[in-house]
Design the sequence.
């Protein structure tokens, strides 16, 4: 399972440490679009990760910017991406189990590295529950196609 990571300048140090941790644990993880700490725009990083996830070239993506919000907004513009900003382990677990989030967005400014790693661990260990949540994902997909989500049957 390939995980792609990226960040703007406010998340560069965080993503590098997270990349090292994931690789030490034997996970296939790659940094894409590294801005090397220089100012860069988060929508470009979110797009790169989003396209890799949506195309199936990566199973999951992790993005870090100052708050995680900008990355989430931008990544969610890519059809097939379900990006979630998470600030604790519970929201990370629910993002995967209920929303089948395939991109995790984190705050490099508001969360310490230790908390970020706990959130990522929880997110990666959670699994999508399906059932009623599957119907809701299909409704999200309908919206991406310009359809009324109410038109989605059980």
Sequence:
């Amino acid at each position: 399972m390939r995980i792609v990571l990226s960040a703007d300048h406010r998340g560069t140090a965080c993503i590098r440490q997270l990349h090292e941790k994931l690789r030490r644990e034997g996970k296939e993880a790659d940094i894409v679009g590294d801005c090397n700490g220089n100012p860069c725009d988060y929508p470009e990083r979110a797009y790169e990760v989003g396209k890799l996830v949506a195309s199936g070239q990566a199973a999951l993506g992790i993005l870090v910017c100052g708050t995680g919000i900008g990355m989430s907004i931008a990544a969610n513009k890519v059809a097939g991406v379900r990006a979630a900003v998470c600030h604790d382990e519970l929201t990370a677990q629910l993002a995967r189990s209920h929303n089948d989030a395939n991109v995790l967005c984190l705050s490099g400014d508001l969360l310490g590295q230790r908390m970020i790693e706990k959130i990522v661990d929880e997110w990666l260990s959670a699994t999508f529950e399906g059932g009623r949540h599957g119907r809701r994902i299909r409704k999200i997909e309908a919206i991406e196609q310009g359809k009324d989500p109410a038109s989605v049957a059980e």
Observations:
- The beta strands are 2-7, 28-31, 60-65, 83-85, 103-107.
- The chain has one domain: 2-129.
